[in-house]
Amino acid sequence: MNGVNRSIVYFNQSGIDNTDAVVDIVYNRLKEGDIKSVVVASSRGVTSLKFAKKMARETNLVIVSSQPGFSAPGVWKFDLKILKEVESIGCKVVKQSHILSGLERSFSGKFSGVSQPVFLSSQTQKHAPSGWVHSYPGWHNTFKV
Q1: 49 partner at 20 to 30 Å CA-CA among 43, 73, 105, 115?
Q2: Are residues 86 and 105 both part of a single domain?
Q3: Is residue 33 assigned to a domain?
């Protein structure tokens, strides 16, 4: 066979209980030698610290946090003590931005608090040919443009 054969791990349940196993899986894959960077999502920093302690000295570890203001205006949930620790190990931490949040808010304001994806989905379902889009009960008459 001419190709790549890799294994996949499926967890029976999603959740924080899988984090340590994921760190080990990524680390074992990293040890194969062909990966130069690892990108990790971490809202508060706890997950990033686990990855950093295990592999930051062996790879370019980039941590992407949730955007400031996600949970409350002006609030960044990333633990600043953890931020200092992962940066001291050599990790790069990126504060995610939500590039379409202004667009999202304009839809929410105009259409009574409904989000852009919900609005677009409902309009697609309303105007698409029958059977083309899966129908959600009650959505077809929810929005009037």
Answers
A1: 73
A2: no
A3: yes
| Structural domain contains residue 118 | yes
CA–CA distance, 114 with 37 (Å, rounded to integer): 38
Closest C-alpha among 121, 126, 71 to residue 96: 71
Query: Are residues 48 and 109 located together in one domain of the fold?
Result: no
pTM of the model: 0.66
Instruction: Report d(CA 92, CA 98) in Å as an integer.
Output: 19
Tens-digit pLDDT profile for residues 29-54: 999 999 999 999 999 999 999 999 99
> What single string gives the DSSP state of each residue in 28-92?
HHHTTS---EEEEE-SSSHHHHHHHHHHTTTSEEEEEEPPTTSSSTT---S-HHHHHHHHHHT-E
